[in-house]
Design goal:
Blueprint: H1 4-14, E1 38-42, E2 45-48, E3 53-56, H2 71-74, H3 77-83, H4 92-104, E4 110-114, H5 117-132, E5 136-140, E6 153-154, E7 161-162, E8 164-165, E9 178-181, H6 186-195, E10 200-205, H7 221-232, E11 235-239, H8 251-256, E12 262-266, E13 276-280, H9 282-285, H10 304-319, H11 322-345, E14 350-354, E15 357-361, H12 370-373, H13 378-390, E16 393-394, E17 403-404, H14 411-429
Parallel strand pairs: 3-16, 5-9, 5-10, 10-11, 11-12
Antiparallel strand pairs: 1-2, 2-3, 4-13, 6-8, 7-9, 12-13, 14-15, 15-17
Helix pairs in contact: 4-10, 6-7, 11-14, 13-14
């Protein structure tokens, strides 16, 4: 494929945007290439500025469960824009959106709209700290909760560590109250809670880890977190920015039958527009200003266009729950085809799938936590990614991200994807 226009666009962008992109993974650095620049998208396809067409499995990192530019979603969008993009005042649509989220998510009794998943998780933790009067929080290695300072933390060796900043610019003092445990390791959490008894405000977790590939919770893990938090008076926060309204209409909470105290949403609830939300039990959310003393604000929070588009999408999904079965069937077919190809090539890579999210890990190990993820052969993945791209199949440019299947993908798309995978697996092993 010819990518000369994208190369030129990237060179120009690098002069005025750090790294040439506005979010690091878009730079394609982890796969040893340069990004494609998009011209337009429709259904399951993306077209770059060089005119190359790709079957898209990024789907804007999940929101487009119906595919790009769905006709139903386009209806009324222009009228919403004409009515006004922002007022700095409340609208009825914000209330309707909040009511819809509360009706879908059992433990969501009140909702506050924000502008991103990062804002949602940051604000949820602040509310949990205000509610409990405690400072320490627990997160899990490999789980990404946005780029707020207190959550940009990695663990050192062992099951438990005090926070070490992942990024320069994050003072050590800011993360001193962030403790890190192993995902899917309930014993490490129990030990941490015991060593910090009475000091922990919240445990925040991706109920389906989606930022180190796709890693489902082991049986008993979420149940154990729920019981532990109830026993110790700790606020359990589900980060459902990826899984909310994607894994199921009621998110991972519905899928696994576990009710957190708070939940964070993003991505799909804005139908691709910048949006986030945090929700929870009434007594916790009542701590948030102006009702309570925990301050959080946002000039563009509850943006009319984002609320309109999000409400349309969630309302459609509510009335057409069969969409979830459709996309899971597509993803299951893709998974089955991938497993057949791996067997044919004599490869022992690992595939994880939850609903319409799946990931091919370039490791022979079962992948249940970040330690397993770190064994992946990223060089082989890079070869695989580039081969798929050259064949017109767009995957996330990182070994540690999910593939998203949409209702717009067709049987032909799946067949073409598997054909490309067959050639790509040969290329990365050659």
């Amino acid at each position: 494929m010819n990518h000369e226009k994208s190369k030129a666009a990237f060179a120009k962008a690098c002069g005025v945007i750090p790294g040439g992109v506005n979010s690091p993974v878009r730079a394609f650095q982890s796969v040893g290439g340069e990004p494609i620049f998009v011209d337009h998208a429709k259904g399951s396809r993306i077209v770059d500025i060089d005119g190359n067409e790709y079957i898209d499995y990024i789907c804007s990192w999940g929101p487009f469960v119906l595919g790009h530019s769905h006709p139903m979603m386009e209806e009324g969008a222009l009228e919403a824009i004409r009515r006004g993009m922002s007022y700095g005042l409340p609208t009825e649509m914000e209330t309707r959106m909040a009511q819809l989220i509360c009706s879908a998510y059992k433990s969501a009794e009140m909702v506050r709209m924000v502008n991103s998943g990062t804002e949602a998780t940051m604000s949820a933790i602040r509310a949990a700290r205000g509610y409990t009067g405690k400072d320490k929080i627990i997160k899990f290695e490999g789980c990404y909760h946005g780029h707020s300072d207190c959550l940009l933390v990695k663990s050192g060796s062992g099951a438990l560590t005090f926070g070490v900043p992942t990024s320069p610019g994050v003072p050590a003092d800011v993360v001193k109250n962030t403790l890190v445990c192993r995902y899917n390791d309930l014993a490490s959490v129990q030990e941490t809670v015991e060593e910090n008894r009475g000091e922990i405000a919240a445990i925040i977790v991706e109920p389906i880890a989606g930022n180190m590939g796709v890693i489902p919770p082991r049986p008993g893990f979420l149940e154990g977190l729920r019981a532990l938090c109830t026993e110790q008076g700790i606020v359990l926060i589900f980060d459902e920015v990826i899984s909310g309204f994607r894994a199921a209409f009621g998110g991972a909470s519905q899928l696994y039958g576990i009710d957190p105290d708070m939940a964070c949403f993003g991505k799909i609830i804005g139908s691709g527009l910048p949006v986030g939300a945090y929700a929870g039990k009434r007594e916790i959310m009542s701590m948030v200003s102006p009702k309570g003393p925990v301050y959080q604000a946002g000039t563009l929070s509850g943006n009319p266009l984002a609320m309109f588009m999000g409400f349309k999408l969630l309302s459609y999904l509510k009335e057409h729950r069969e969409i979830y079965q459709t996309v899971e069937e597509y993803a299951a077919k893709l998974e089955a085809g991938m497993r057949e190809l791996l067997a044919r090539h004599g490869l022992h890579y690992t595939i994880n799938r939850v609903g319409s999210l799946l990931c091919l890990f370039f490791t022979e190990r079962e992948v249940v936590c970040y330690d397993d993820v770190k064994t992946c052969d990223t060089d082989k993945f890079s070869k695989y990614f580039q081969s798929m791209l050259d064949q017109g199949v767009l995957l996330a440019p990182s070994q540690f991200e999910a593939m998203f299947v949409s209702a717009a993908h067709t049987q032909e798309d799946l067949e073409r994807t598997l054909y490309a995978m067959d050639r790509a697996l040969s290329a990365c092993e050659g």
